[in-house]
Amino acid sequence: MTENSPHSINALWIFFPIASYLLGSIPFGRLISRSVASIDITRRGSGNIGATNVARELGVTWGILTLVLDLLKGFVPAFIFGLFFPDFEIGQAIVGLSALLGHQFSLYEQFQGGKGVATALGIYLAISPVPCLIALVLFMFTVYLTDFVSVGSMLSVSVMPLILVFFGKSNALIVASLIIATLVCSKHKDNIQRLVKGEERRWRKRVVM
Fold this sequence. Notes:
It is built from ten helices and no strands. By secondary structure, it is mostly helical. The protein has one domain (11-197). Helix 4 (60-84) runs antiparallel to helix 5, helix 5 runs parallel beside helix 9 (171-186) and helix 6 runs antiparallel to helix 7 (129-146). The chain is globular.
């Protein structure tokens, strides 16, 4: 049995999910909005700490920065874990999910948080980049057609398990993607209600430069 065997339970393996959750818990959107504009982003716009709300309230530049940082919360731990345990896909999926749970249920935000779309994107970039890029194209095309970021987010994350099946990915990654889709879509319940009522905020009409 090698040191990096999937069956070896050691301090490094235990460390990764914990560190991933703590990293995922960092509320970059709140920190950026407070630093840049001295505002509490949870009390502006949709009240979400994610990139979309930051872009609407502070501008596209700060929204992009929030997006990148939230993406890295999912990408970095999953990618580094893959370097240490290249054949342990279940472990990599657990580490990625830990980051997502940290973002959605942040230790530093009284277990509140964002929707997790950018963090999920980072996870997929680390564990399955080609299917991730396909889902990203679907997201952008959907937002272009509908002008709703929420619709693009829910559709792309929901289709991701099917894309992974098409590419012959492992059951561990497919199951993880189903969990990710469930978590992300459940965080969009308010968006779904606004879509039904015709009250959902459109992207191009509200974003500021």
